[in-house]
Amino acid sequence: MMTSLFPPPRRITELERTPPGPAAETVVSQDSELPEQGYRLEYAETIRITYADAAGLRYAQQSLEQLRGRAAEQQQAVLVEDWPDFRRRGFMLDISRDRVPTRRALRRLVDLLVLGRYNQLELYTEHTYAYSDHAEVWADASPMTAEDMRWLDDLCAARGIELVPNQNTFGHWERWLTYERYLPRAENPEPQEFAGLMRPPSTLAPTDENAEFITGLLEELTGPLRSSRINIGADETWELGTGLSRERTERQGLGEVFLDYVEKVAQPWLERGHTVEFWADILGSYPQLMDRIPAGMVPVVWLYDSPELTAEVLGKLSDAERAQMEAHGVDLGQLPNFEARAAALIEADVPFWVAPGTGTWQSFTGRLENAIGNITDAARTGVKHDSEGFLLTSWGDHGHYDPLPISYAPALFGAGVSWNASSAEALAEQLPEVLDRLVFEDEAGVLGSVLVSIGQVTDALDAKMANASPLFRGVLKAGDLEPHHLPSAESLAEARAALTGALDELQTAKPASPEGPVAVREIEQAIRWSLFATDLLGSELLRSGTLPQAEARVFLDRLDQLRAGQRETWLLSARPGGLDTSISRFDPLGQLLSQFAHAAARGA
Questions:
Q1: Is 246 helix (H, G, I), strand (E, B) or coil?
Q2: Which CATH number fits the domain that encloses residue 77?
Q3: CA–CA dist 242, 230 (Å, integer)
Q4: One domain for residues 478 and 595
Q5: Which entry of 9, 24, 381, 382 is 20 to 30 Å from 374 by CA?
Q6: How does residue 388 score in pLDDT terms, banded at 50, 70 and 90?
Q7: Which burial class, exposed, middle or buried, applies to 354 when counting CB atoms under 10 A from its CB (0-12, 13-18, 19+)?
Q8: CB neighbours (10 Å) of residue 25?
Q9: Locate the Beta-hexosaminidase bacterial type N-terminal domain: which residues (predicted)?
Q10: Cα 512 from Cα 604, distance rounded (Å)
Q11: Are residues 565 and 428 both part of a single domain?
């Protein structure tokens, strides 16, 4: 019976009684002694629901619907007693790495969040909100408008989800700073070298003027929304202390300069009674500042690889990789797990949230086993240290090639584990069935297993890397991979077999849900990208830097077909803005393949 309910309940007991009939009486009462958002559901001749609050009643009704929906021969009288481990269970979708979802896609996402009992949604924004007077920044991005946000806020509110505004206010400002009008706001207006690579300006200077400018933007972003929370970001401030704030940083230290500015951005909202979330990656390196965090500010600790993968990756880091990570401010000592990442906050007894990831970005079909390990580590750390919040992140680094359904399996796993952290092991096994039964309503029962199997392909490769799939990076950075990132021929053959089998199985899917046909097309495109990447990594191009003419032409034709297919499937769920930019990220590969094809032809 445990498999019949999602999220898995904390306690379910079979009763030696008769299950309810179609006309069974339902008795509902409130009990303030129950845990927050909790409920007690007696599913028998008479259905009895006792709930703590409105959320508890909603979740009890959800469980009741799932029990009633079981086949007649599977009906069983049960007692369900349930409440969440995390009071706030959030999902964050990146809408600033080229892919801005349509309203239809956002509705699909909200349906999934309701199923998983998430009660918070954030759309991560850098430049994709239609701020008035700043049209040059978002003109080509098909941004979210105030009307879009108001519509989404209404949709979320009606279904028990709080839409929390999320705007990065410190780092990740490269899309703004590329314009001359905003460049004076940069910490350093000149490109900076990080471990041999040049990066354009991306960090705001920590000035009062910039803080006031940000307040104006946040006023506009929050205007259509009900929430009394806000996420101001402030992660990865790579250039901080290299330009305008250099002298001050040398006097006070980078940590104090960082926190002073973050406090200035947060202060107007704290004064209004808002709760202010911010990323804790910078602050976590300065334990001496823990007592300065104002009441109402919530550090959010993020980490996106599992302890198992991290240990393997750290053991194989090249000098170049280590230099690259250190140049970007990564403290390698904080990477093993969430306990290490949050050590300074834990030691100072500062409340914090945990933020694992879906593991889908910088991949085509996800890294599901890694995500499961990462999410489980986050949930267990959060429960151990009484974290109020769990925020599952779905980023879109380098073009957001993965369509939304690739995030479904980790999103549902995160939902179940943030509700009931002890369910992790059982839930991982149930994901295909949950996807087929409750998301896609797949008569053939294949879509769930396809999503899980393709999500495991990267994890099964005998070459590992942090925060990305070698398949994706091989296409994005052809000819620029470390030798230990190249899987063996045997591993690639196994990956190809798994992907080909999944593609064949996908053709037999029979989803009844409205989104089913769209999801099938999006998943098929993701598999075809991964098959292309598998073949590319097995070629001589990434191993010796050469490629025969005929093989180069075949790869070039396949790449052109994939880019055309990407245009079609992108527009099924995403707005056109950002599409050209996303697809152009693979131009270097196209140019490299073209050079080999044409050079071979000239030499023939």
A1: helix
A2: 3.30.379.10
A3: 29
A4: yes
A5: 9
A6: very high
A7: buried
A8: 9
A9: 22-83
A10: 54
A11: no
* Distance, CA of 268 to CA of 17 (rounded, Å): 58
Nearby residues of 319 by Cβ (< 8 Å), 6 or more positions away: none
| Token digits of residue 298 | 């919530």
Query: What angle, rounded to 10 degrees, do the helices at 447-455 and 368-384 form?
Result: 90
Token pair 């052109």 is at which residue?
Answer: 560
Whether 370 and 460 share a structural domain: no
Say if residue 543 is exposed, middle or buried (CB neighbours under 10 Å; 0-12, 13-18, 19+).
middle
Phi and psi at 247, nearest 5°, equal: -65, -40
Q: Are residues 402 and 293 in the same domain?
A: yes
One domain, residues 389 and 286: yes
* Encoded tokens for 269: 């909202």
Same domain flag for 380 and 479: no
In Å, the largest CA–CA distance within the chain is: 84
- Quick check: helix, strand or coil at residue 23? coil
Residue pair 123/144 in contact by the 8 Å Cβ criterion: yes
Helices (H), 9-102: 54-68
How far is it, in rounded angstroms, from Cα 128 to Cα 145? Answer: 9
Q: What is the per-residue pLDDT across 328-362, written as a single tens digit (0 to 9) for each?
A: 667 777 778 999 999 999 999 999 999 999 999 99
- Residues 520 and 443: their CA atoms lie apart, in Å, by 14
Q: In whole angstroms, give the CA distance from residue 481 to residue 479.
A: 6
Instruction: Please tell me the total count of domains within the chain.
Output: 3
Residues forming a β-bridge with 14: 78
Both 153 and 45 in one domain: the answer is: no
> Helices (DSSP H) in 407-548: which residue ranges?
408-419, 424-434, 447-455, 457-460, 470-476, 489-506, 516-538, 541-544
Predicted local distance difference test score (pLDDT) of residue 481: 84
DSSP string, 261-287: HHHHHHHHHHHTT-EEEEE-TTGGG-G
**Residues belonging to the active site:** 236
Q: For 305-314, how does the pLDDT look when each residue is reduced to its tens digit (9 = 90+)? A: 999 999 999 8
